[in-house]
Structures are given as C-alpha cells and as structure tokens.
Amino acid sequence: MNPLHTTEGLLQFGLRDRWYPLCPSEHVRPGQLTRLDRAGEELLLWRDAAGVVHVQEDRCPHRAARLSHGVHMGDRVACNYHGVQVDAEGTVVSVPGSPGCALEGRRVLRTFPAREHGGAVFAWFGLDESAPPAPLEVPEPIAGEEWAHFLCYVEWDAPYRYSLDNLLDPMHGAFLHRNSHTMFAGKREAVFQIRATDKGFVFEKTDQRGVNFDWVELTEGGAQWVTLDIPYPDTAGPGGPFTIVAALSAISEHRHAGFFWRCRKVSGWQRDSWRFLYRNRLEARHFAVLEQDREMAEAMPADAWDRENLYQHDIALVRMRRLLRAEAAKQAARLTEPAAPAPVPVA
Amino acid sequence: MPASYENAFGDELEAVYGRGVHDLPGIVAALNASGVRPANGADWTESSFTAELARLSGTEN
Ligand code: FES
Ligand SMILES: [Fe+2]
C-alpha cells in the first residue's frame, strides 16, 4: 500500500492538502533539471524560459525513467530513454519513436502547483490532485514590506517531526542555548498555557515575555508554519526581537529540510544596520545556535516517541501531535474509501 | 575596501549598540569618539553613517 494512503505514512512524510517549501529558489537553476525527494514524492523541478518554476513527478510517463536524467528544452522536458517530451502542464507533446500514438496530447505526468515566496520554492500536494490548491498564505514577517528577512536552509538527518517537536518546545532555549548570544536570560522554571487561534494555537509562558524563547505559534491550514520571537541583546542595535518563521518538509523517513526565515521588523537605516550586522556576524552566531538543535535532533533514538515521560512544558507537543494525527487519520480514510457507486442510468 | 575595515566597523557598532545607544545622533557621536572612520578619514555625520550602512548592507545590489 502507498504509505501516503496510511495515517502513519502521512505523519511520516507530511499531510496532504498543504503547501510545502521544497528548496531555496537558487537551487533550481535556469536550464537545469533538479531532482528532489520531498513529502514522500520523487520530484523534478525546472524553470521554463520565462523563469517560472515547475514541479512534477520525476517519472517518465512512458516507462518511468527519470526525467531528471533527460534534456531541458526550454518549455518542455525530453526523456533521455526514448525521447518522449512532456510540457509544464504534464501533457505529452511528442512521442518521437511513434508519432501520432495515443500518448500524444494526453496529460499524464503528475504536476504539482508551484510558487516562489521568500526565496523558496513551494509546491502543493493535494489529497485530490485534480482539485485546485488553497491559496499560499505566507506569515506577515516574510510577506510584509516593513520586515527584512534572510532564509536559512538546512537538511538534517532526523525525522521532520523531531524538528517540529523542537520548535514547539520553547523551554529548551533556557537550557540547550543558555550560552548563546540571544537566549542566556530568563527563568528555568515556567508555567505555560495554550491559547487557540483561528488556525492553530499559541503556546506561551504565563509570566515572562521578551526575555528568552517565550512563546511559539503553530499555524495549520494550507501550510504548516511555526513562528516565534527571540529577543536580541542591545548589541544587535535598534529594531526589537528577531522573529523566526519556520517550515519543514520531509526528505525521507529519517531526513528533512528545514526553512528558517530570520526576520526583523525594521526599516530605513535600522534595516541596513541589521542586514549588515547579520551578514558580518549575526548569521554565524544564529547558525551556531541552530547547530546545537541539529546535534540534539540527529542524535535522538529512532523510537524516541515510544518511550517518553512528558510533563507540563510538553503540552504543546501533545496538542500538535493529536492535531496532526486526527487530520492524518481523516485524510487516510478519504484516500482509501471505496469509490462512490456509479449512478444508475435513467432509462 | 578590505574586509578588516568592515569587521572593525562591526565591532565598533556592536560596542556602541551594546551600551544601549540606539539613536542616530548618539551613534554618530559615539563613533566619532572611536577610532573607526569612513574611507575619507572625515568625521561621521548622520548622512555619511546611513550611506555607509546602505552600502555595507548590500541593499543596493
Ligand atoms: S521511459 Fe521515457 S521515453 Fe521511454
Ligand atoms: Fe533551539
């Protein structure tokens, strides 16, 4: 059975009816064919002559050879095995070995709606692939003009769910990152509360804000976003805390891609100052902090979730896992339900 | 322009900011009291400082 039709598989590779970031935009070079595994799919990414990015299944509709081993022809891709040509809509436009054959003109290559935003390529993986995608709603810090941002892209040897756990666990800031430039302050004991929002929830300390990693918001809808603030020390200059907008996509059961947009609401010279300091020194410091997370996540045992003893700080994890599991079960049920019986023709 | 200049400028800027000085006149005065100068050796002004930040931030490329 296709793992993407089971609750477990959907949890492992990511729910359907979601936009997922696939890679930074610059990874898809003009004139080239890029192969990526994401969200349980084997993908081919390429840009047409106008620079528009296309995301399709990396599988020739003829005999399943890798289209990524083929030839980029500007507005189409030619398979290298027998020369079949497919366009950006997934339609076979030429079968050179058998001109006029029935495959020509058929739309048979799985093609996923794609967008670029905030320096990354996104694709929509729908439960029903013939249905149109939901709009890609991007959080304010990467969409808003008053914000500046840099995208930090990483690939970790850990299930994406460990990284999601890490993001929904603000308390690790005061321990794992206690010697970092940003998370040295704040209490080591905290009481957290959960506040429901339109599309998810906020998990926050009840008695401290703006001191450490004190709150996190999960947004579940047409995409899954995690947003949080981390205060900067005075040395970072004017502009307030920096915000992280994070999104994750599975590469395999054991590996994932992480997108961390580091954002700050700054304009004018303050924006220039942050951008300069970010490039000149802050980026390296932020990266060192992220490396601490990577080391933890990659070293976690494969059965981490099977033997845990959670406490009050972990209620966001419990809520998030329950939310995802319920949705995955619903999607799996829809994917396996028998097709509705054909209507009885009226005589 | 050698990168060492950018590092020295970054060091000085962080030091000034670290003292809680986050306003333009205060920053310019504090930089002028330090050893870091723009390429022409002149004192910093608000406009030379913000122009330098714009250049260093890479906003224009
Ligand atoms: S497998 Fe691609 S053309 Fe035959
Ligand atoms: Fe962390």
TrEMBL record, chain A:
SUPFAM superfamilies: Bet v1-like (SSF55961), ISP domain (SSF50022). InterPro entries: Cholesterol_7-desaturase, Rieske_2Fe-2S, Rieske_2Fe-2S_sf, VanA_C_cat. It holds the Pfam family Rieske. This is Phenylpropionate dioxygenase-like ring-hydroxylating dioxygenase large terminal subunit. Keywords: 2Fe-2S, Iron, Iron-sulfur, Metal-binding, Oxidoreductase. Gene3D superfamilies: Naphthalene 1,2-dioxygenase Alpha Subunit, Chain A, domain 1, Rieske [2Fe-2S] iron-sulphur domain. Residues 19-123 form the Rieske domain.
Automatic annotation (TrEMBL), chain B:
Residues 2-57 form the Recombinase-like domain. Pfam families: HTH_62. This is Recombinase-like domain-containing protein. It comes from Amycolatopsis viridis.
